[in-house]
Specification:
single chain; 10 strands; globular; alpha/beta
Length: 223
């Protein structure tokens, strides 16, 4: 089996504003191998988040070729794309997306419940890995922003995904918390030898954690 996780050739994505077609991805050629830690860096509005959403099969591309684990994504129906995303991919977002009425533990459990799994041991282990075992019963409002992002990371990784997609994971954090979160993401990546991590950021100071850096500008990968 090929070790290539994602491969795109001439990838295109457009948005529509009223009757206008606005190109966002303008022919992306990338190949990402299993186990890589890749950072995509570029200014706001260059298409980084759109690329991540296409790779995560949260939205469809409009042209070019996109293959995930060797499968042509254009040939998959909605159910098949959802199944692939649910079983293989996890996301970490800038805004954390935690449920305020639930404890840290219950927020992490949600990821397992979506997959039909309710293993407490996995949840406890995930929170221990991000250093929050003693605060598992705290609600998000009782945690610092850095701790909230750690809960979001635990939620993403509790299912042991093949791919972690991180969208500006330090965007809401100060420099000290940004450094700590990046060290955590890198450390957890290294512990999972086969996990692929793709991180997008506009902050060039944190890309040193990556094995490879792709620079994006105006919807293209700079070569």
């Amino acid at each position: 089996m090929s070790s290539v996780v994602f491969e795109t050739k001439g990838l295109l994505k457009n948005f529509r504003v009223d009757s206008l077609k606005v190109p966002v991805l303008r022919g992306i050629d990338i190949q990402i191998e299993q186990g890589e830690f890749v950072a995509v860096v570029g200014p706001s509005g260059c298409g980084k988040s759109t690329l991540l959403h296409v790779l995560g099969m949260m939205c469809k591309h409009d042209g070019g070729d996109f293959r995930a684990w060797g499968q042509n994504v254009s040939e998959l129906n909605q159910r098949q794309r959802t199944k692939m995303r649910r079983e293989k991919i996890a996301f970490v977002f800038q805004r954390f997306n935690l449920l305020g009425v639930l404890s840290a533990k219950n927020n992490v459990q949600m990821a397992l419940k979506i997959r039909g799994d309710h293993t407490d041991h996995q949840v406890n282990q995930a929170l221990e890995e991000v250093g929050l075992a003693e605060k598992m019963h705290f609600k998000p409002s009782q945690l610092s922003v850095g701790e909230q992002q750690r809960v979001a990371i635990a939620r993403a990784l509790v299912c042991r995904p093949e791919v972690l997609l991180a969208d500006e994971p330090t965007g809401s954090l100060d420099s000290e918390n940004s450094k700590a979160v990046m060290e955590l993401i890198r450390g957890l990546h290294d512990e999972r030898a086969e996990q692929t991590t793709i991180l997008i950021t506009h902050n060039r100071r944190i890309v040193d954690a990556a094995d490879r850096v792709l620079e994006m500008i105006d919807g293209k990968i700079k070569t």
